[in-house]
Amino acid sequence: MGTLLHAITPKLALPGHDFSSSSSSSSYYGLTFPYLNSRFQGSSSSTRLAKKIRVSADSTKHSPAVDFSDPGWKSKFEKDFEARFNIPHITDVFDDAVSIPSTFCLRMRTPVSEEFAGGYPSDEEWHGYINKNDRVLLKVIRYSSPTSAGAECIDPDCTWVEQWVHRAGPREKIYFRPEEVKAAIVTCGGLCPGLNDVIRQIVITLEIYGVKKIVGIPFGYRGFSAKELNEMPLSRKVVQNIHLSGGSLLGVSRGGPSISEIVDSMEERGINMLFVLGGNGTHAGANAIHNECRMRRMKVAVVGVPKTIDNDILLMDKTFGFDTAVEEAQRAINSAYIEAHSAYHGVGIVKLMGRSSGFIAMHASLASGQIDICLIPEVPFNLHGPHGVLRHLKYLIETKGSAVVCVAEGAGQNFLEKTNARDASGNVVFGDIGVHIQQEIKKSFKAISVPVDVKYIDPTYMIRACRANASDGILCTVLGQNAVHGAFAGYSGITVGICNTHYVYLPIPEVISYPRLVDPNSRMWHRCLTSTGQPDFI
Ligand SMILES: Nc1ncnc2c1ncn2[C@@H]1O[C@H](COP(=O)(O)OP(=O)(O)O)[C@@H](O)[C@H]1O
Ligand SMILES: O=P(O)(O)OC[C@H]1O[C@](O)(COP(=O)(O)O)[C@@H](O)[C@@H]1O
Ligand SMILES: [Mg+2]
Q: How far is the CA of 190 from the centre of ligand 2 (A)?
């Protein structure tokens, strides 16, 4: 039996979302993902970010066609996985690139930013560096059967297959001389708690390596082309306290110039290290920038740090800002609960972010213990009918006297009129599902002459704009440092992440081929259902 399978993706039982199909498209549930085109983006100057051509993403492109009757399939699979997760290195293009001993001191000496003319200060007997052959195991559960809860299997027997990815951290040899580096940082997309923490750590770590030219590009990729926007000089002094507030010191934006315009601008400015903080779209851009630099034979390191409050980046335990968002969402949920609980037949509705993934809604519901109904984009539901949400709400009002609903912004979009509107980055602009549910509740209770008092809370921007909590602060710190270590080690076209509590470098295309989704068959979603006590709404 020859079957085409993905190496690393859990198969999700979503209508119209068959990841195991060789014709995976760039859309599901009627949503399209512009960044899926990234693998197909050429370097032509006509490749404008604002005018992306939608191409079907062949997400099986790097996956093997596995013939499980071949006794050697497992080792072939593991070899293919190793190749897919290889991280691009400067020596792939510049075979004459020379390395020097690292200027990053594991034992600090002062002053840190001296010229290193007399030799680099890492020639001590100290072995705290990461070996380039160190690896982290991506999947750590050995399922004994495909029927085990949450099993992610590659073959019908759920054979144990090792999937190793590259370990992040400082290397003993570096491929950039600090005095020759001009590093730039850019933050793109929507806000996310922790952006300032990452910026701060990148700057601090660069300075420890001995870099003196560090700049911030204002307002996302836009800052590369807008003449009125000047780059912002950065230093430890400038960034010292920025993590104490939310937002981004540099500003963010969606849309922007073409890849070739961005790379032209990098050439003009002499930028040879670029740190890109953003989500799926931003990373598609970062990968295209990396490819364009290679094509122009520019010795540049482009390193991403995944930023998304939605937590929709593949393979990672979580992205920074997610924890804070879940925590902050508790305030909205608690307010909705109090309002609902204090009203006669009160219903509270909280809408949380999650364009295509319901992670925030699911985790916030679980954390609060105050949610009766959690609705996410990955799990279809009916509002009306005998098994619909409204029928269950009536039951809750009758039995408990009140109810609280948590809905992810991307959920139930099939109930809303499509506007076909897109933001500057090409993302679909959604209708407000919270408002729709509120109206439908009012209408349906009126029709049966049952009074109901509905309160709707949309805390989106309050959640996004706050500063990172302690746990995210640590995550940002480690990711920011590792981004700099990765660039100095000579890697480019990579992003940093946390997998099974270990820090890793991953090739960008592997983490953005589609948005990470809540698996409706996962134990976490089942835990959420157990906690809310909600039935299926289909
Ligand atoms: N497929 C793509 N290729 C290149 N750049 C992209 C692509 N998709 C989005 N971008 C750019 O990345 C930036 C951020 O994208 P956006 O989708 O708004 O946020 P996020 O990165 O958080 O997903 C924007 O400047 C956008 O133009
Ligand atoms: O109103 P904006 O700024 O376009 O942002 C809305 C979007 O931002 C998000 O919170 C995060 O999106 P990004 O990861 O693309 O920044 C989405 O959930 C939401 O759809
Ligand atoms: Mg996005």
A: 5
